[in-house]
Write a structure and sequence with these properties.
Layout lengths: L4 E5 L4 E5 L11 H5 L2 E10 L6 E3 L2 H14 L7 H18 L5 E9 L6 E7 L3 H9 L1 E7 L23 H12 L4 E5 L12 E6 L2 E5 L9 H8 L7 E5 L3 H5 L3 E6 L3 E8 L2 E2 L4 H13 L1
Parallel strand pairs: 7-8, 7-13, 10-11
Antiparallel strand pairs: 1-2, 1-6, 3-4, 3-5, 5-6, 9-10, 9-12, 12-13, 13-14
The structure holds pyridoxal-5'-phosphate (PLP).
Pyridoxal-5'-phosphate binds next to helix 6 and strand 12.
């Protein structure tokens, strides 16, 4: 499967197709050695009957991209330019690999060195994602190392911005796998449930969907917002709440949600089984798939 790369020059408002297998990024780019940049990963779904490609939560992603840019004092990204880059990647994937009906596109904006630079490239859906959608995952809770609601007092921590610095998130995932689980669930140092390293948590309690308050210290997810926007059609109320691990253990269902995995059932936490709601899992996956 060949993935497609587009380079973005924000200064010249230009995009061009490039070869993902060739070196493109100077090693002194500030994203490469400082993690000084932002990104988004969107899910693209192709409707097999109409052949139309849909970017799930396109506007939600771009709004967050702008918020992240602002948090890092990067220039405000131009929607027309980034849309053009995204559409160029999608068109190229569609033209060269018409059999791909689902893929991701990751777009990034780096401080660069002398001037900012951007790029966008397609990413395949891993086999592990398909398996997680079908079977669910086991997680272990890990201390995120800060108290809940620290972000407003310490904006330089960039809590809630989607920066390229993901080393901690990657390390948490590895640690979880060393513990025999599939993923981690971050909890604030003072015991408030936050998020996974690359996903948000939603639980069901009766007829309510609950998710941690984004201002508690996590990335406000586009998938969680999409689900909350459609809660009523599922006959559910949706609210933000401070949750403790006990709330997850006692839930009537729990999901890790994110753009690429959509909604994945959390089947156990810290070795304790979590109630499964397979019907709602299927409904959530269907709602996300519609975009
Ligand atoms: N939280 C973190 C730390 C993430 O990296 C992600 C996704 O990349 C999410 C939450 C879920 O966000 P979204 O639903 O927009 O993909």
């Amino acid at each position: 499967m060949t993935d497609v790369l587009v380079l973005i020059d924000p200064t010249a408002a230009a995009v061009e197709l490039a070869d993902l297998t060739l070196p493109q990024l100077p090693v002194d780019d500030l994203s490469a050695h400082r993690g000084d940049g932002i990104f988004e990963t969107v899910l693209v779904r192709v409707d097999e009957s109409s052949d139309d490609a849909t970017v799930v939560s396109r506007e939600r992603h771009f709004a967050r991209f702008r918020t992240s840019a602002s948090a890092l004092d990067l220039p405000d990204p131009d929607p027309e330019l980034w849309d053009r880059a995204l559409d160029t990647v999608i068109a190229e994937v569609r033209a060269t690999q018409p059999e791909r009906v689902e893929f991701g596109v990751r777009y990034s904006f780096s401080r660069g060195l002398d001037s900012p630079r951007g790029w966008a490239f397609s990413v395949p859906i891993d086999e592990s994602v398909l398996q997680a959608r079908a079977e669910g995952i086991a997680a272990v809770s890990l201390d995120r190392g800060y108290d809940a609601y620290l972000g407003s007092k310490a904006p330089w921590l960039l809590i809630g911005a989607k920066t390229i610095s993901y080393a901690i998130n990657q390390a948490a995932g590895r640690h979880a796998r060393e513990c025999g689980a599939d993923d981690a669930l971050f909890v604030s140092h003072d015991g408030v449930v936050l998020e996974g390293p690359t996903s948000n948590l939603i639980i069901r309690r009766g007829d309510r969907l609950l998710t941690p308050d984004p201002t508690a210290g996590l990335l406000w997810g586009t998938t969680q917002r999409l689900i909350f926007d459609h809660a009523e059609e599922l006959g559910l109320r949706a609210d933000y709440a401070d949750l403790r691990l006990q709330d997850v253990f006692a839930a009537d269902g729990a999901w890790f949600v994110s753009s690429m995995r959509t909604a994945v059932a959390l089947t156990s936490l810290d070795g304790n089984p979590v109630t499964r709601d397979d019907e709602l899992t299927a409904q959530l996956q269907r709602i996300i798939g519609r975009g």
